[in-house]
Write a structure and sequence with these properties.
Bound molecules: adenosine-5'-diphosphate
CATH topology: Rossmann fold
Number of helices: 9
Number of domains: 1
Low-confidence stretches: none
CATH architecture: 3-Layer(aba) Sandwich
Strand order of the largest sheet: 2-3-1-4-5
CATH superfamily: P-loop containing nucleotide triphosphate hydrolases
């Protein structure tokens, strides 16, 4: 099973990912989490990525695609993958399709969590991660609209998209997802 969690920063992807990976025995691949780990380990990739992350810009496609490829190729014994925060550009989406074709797999569903901007900003400000200040948040939301939102049509056309209202409780969002899966 291959699922993609899609939605703006603060939509609740991480929270729902924790529930989904347990229920379906999936490997959760959050590019944000992987990048933050690289940053804290001071790896070459982390050093390269940090400047983009601190300003709310996207890390370059090459770095992200290479990173995901490594993870997929080095993983065994799972029921599938749960992508969170990836793909975030059309070219990442195309690269993912190619990787999956090479290993005879395909995306099952793209779960899109829909939440209003003002709710998102409030949630992010109360989360308090180091890149969660008002200026960076605004930039991340703009980057999302310009570079990431266009992928939705890419998946809508292939009938894989599940649109879910993400502003109700964690349990309600989760049961809506399970119902539609
Ligand atoms: P959020 O959803 O709150 O924006 P993430 O944890 O998903 O947070 O990502 C944090 C930062 O990591 C992003 O602002 C971006 O700089 C970088 N990043 C994460 N995933 C990707 C990706 N797929 N492509 C490019 N940059 C990414």
């Amino acid at each position: 099973m291959i699922l993609i969690l899609f939605g703006p920063p603060g939509a609740g992807k991480g929270t729902q990912a924790d529930l989904l990976k347990e229920k379906h025995n999936l490997l959760h691949l959050s590019t944000g989490d992987i990048l933050r780990e690289e940053v804290s380990n001071n790896t070459q990739l982390g050093i390269e990525a940090k400047k983009f992350m601190d300003s709310g810009e996207l890390v370059t496609d090459d770095l992200i695609i290479g990173m995901i490829k490594n993870k997929i190729e080095s993983t065994t014994n799972v029921n599938g993958f749960l992508f969170d925060g990836f793909p975030r550009t059309i070219s990442q989406a195309e690269a993912l399709d190619l990787m999956l074709i090479e290993s005879n797999k395909e995306i099952d569903k793209v779960i899109s969590l829909e939440v209003d901007d003002n709710v998102l900003t409030k949630r992010l400000l109360s989360r308090g991660r180091s890149d969660d200040n008002e200026i960076t948040i605004k930039n991340r939301l703009d980057v999302y609209k310009n570079q990431t939102l266009p992928i939705k049509d890419f998946y809508k056309n292939s009938n894989k998209l599940l649109e879910i209202k993400g502003d109700s409780s964690i349990e309600e969002v989760s049961s809506e997802i399970e119902k539609l899966l």
